[in-house]
Amino acid sequence: MPRPSQSQSQRSSTADRPNATQEVDEAHLITCMVKTILNLSINKSIIKRSDISHIALKGDSRLYTRLMPDVLFELESVYGYQLVDVESKGQKAMILCSTFETSSLDELSESYRRRYTFLFLILGYIFMKNGAVPEALLWDFLHSVGIEEQQEHECFGDPRKQFELFIKQAYLTRTKQSVEGMPEESVFLSWGVRAKHEVSKKAVLDAICKLMNRKPTDFKTQYIETQAETSESVTAVGRTRTSTPNGRGELFFAMNNNINGTVDGQTVVEYSTVDSSVKELIEAAIQVRNNAYCPYSNFPVGAALRTTTGEIVTGCNVENGTFGPSVCAERTAVCKAISEGHREFTAVAVAAYQENEFTAPCGTCRQTLAEFSAKDIPIYLVKPAPVRVMITSLFKLLPHAFSPTFLNNK
């Protein structure tokens, strides 16, 4: 089959791109770019500009440059993320960093809690050693606390695998440095770009001082760094952006600085602003999520129902090797509640493990909830840690639901 000529290829490529006379739905493209960035970073991977342009804009770099300021603004004001420049194999790339304060480890699942405890241990050691240590010295320290480089650990799993993952995710940076008196360069480790943006040095120092029964001021160098960090945080919080280059600032202003707003037409609020009964329901969903049996999907979900008597009934997802008998968290909770004599619910909370998306009940679970809901009930959706809460409702998620009353109409 003959290959197309260069001019034919150029015409074909150009046809896929909007020209100067075509109208471009910039709001749609901004949404596409935001979703692409969130998807590319779901495992905290490094993001290449070319991938964003190729997936969301069909390779049109001109649109990328024009729309990126609005994309950055939406990522921060709506989702609480910043795109931070990094270098990857000598090329410029980006990572998506959270702008929220570090969440409590208690809010994480057991596997995540163990992973980040190991990370915290490494970052703490580097911080107390004034910011950079030879890699060999770090492993000597880990050996002293019972963690062997080439040996599976009962709590942290494969230390070397976790360690390399931290480097890949930019929590750690590995560099070569010349050391006086040594013939070869040594490999040093320091905090990576992600750690600098997401991990609080003050929290690290406070934890170490608590462990050692010391005061933060006993470690002058580290204490001064934490004070500088606090000052930078105060300055950052004081900055607000009220408009964007294309005049869409009003759309996002209501959500800037973590103020309540909407996402995809659903209300999103700060976790701290919901009332105590809602917090109780959400915390129950988070707690039961740790009991999920999901060896095949590795996607734990917890659900909590509030009954008309005020009781909370919880459930987690239970998977099966043949897949068919697997049960979602929401239906587990419903079946449990029904078996205990309840027949109607007033609220639902669902907690899953997508960092970049709110996870809603599947269609089958929505219909199951509708079976026992004569009227609309609120549904609260939370991400891994309840920084923000999406408030929706059963009838919003399942409009025109099939009702048991339909079967009684003769």
Written overview of the protein:
The chain has three domains: 21-98, MAGE homology domain, winged helix WH1 motif (Arc Repressor Mutant, subunit A, Orthogonal Bundle), CATH 1.10.10.1200; 105-199, Orthogonal Bundle (Arc Repressor Mutant, subunit A); 264-400, Cytidine Deaminase, domain 2 (3-Layer(aba) Sandwich), CATH 3.40.140.10. It is globular, with a radius of gyration of 25 Å. The protein is of the alpha+beta class. The longest helix is centred in the first third of the chain and has 19 residues, at 61-79. The protein has helices spanning 6-15, 26-40, 49-57, 61-79, 110-128, 135-144, 159-168, 193-198, 201-212, 220-238, 249-253, 276-289, 329-339, 363-371, 394-397, and strands spanning 81-88, 91-98, 132-134, 172-177, 186-191, 261-263, 266-270, 302-307, 312-316, 345-351, 378-382, 388-393. The strands form three sheets. A seven-stranded mixed sheet has the order 6-7-12-11-10-8-9. β4 (172-177) and β5 (186-191) form a beta hairpin.
The helix-and-strand class reads alpha+beta
User: CATH topology of the largest domain, what is it called?
Assistant: Cytidine Deaminase, domain 2
Helix/strand order: HHHHEEHEHHEEHHHHEEHEEHEHEEH
Tell me what the CATH architecture of the largest domain is: 3-Layer(aba) Sandwich
Largest sheet: 7 strands, mixed
Instruction: Please tell me what the overall shape is.
Output: globular
Write down the CATH class of the largest domain: Alpha Beta
Give the count of structural domains.
3
Distance separating the two termini:
66 Å
- Beta-strand fraction estimate: 15-25%
Active site: 330
Cofactor: Zn(2+)
InterPro entries: APOBEC/CMP_deaminase_Zn-bd, CMP_dCMP_dom, Cyt/Deoxycyt_deaminase, Cyt_deam_tetra, Cytidine_deaminase-like, MAGE_WH1, MAGE_WH2, MHD_dom
Protein name: cytidine deaminase
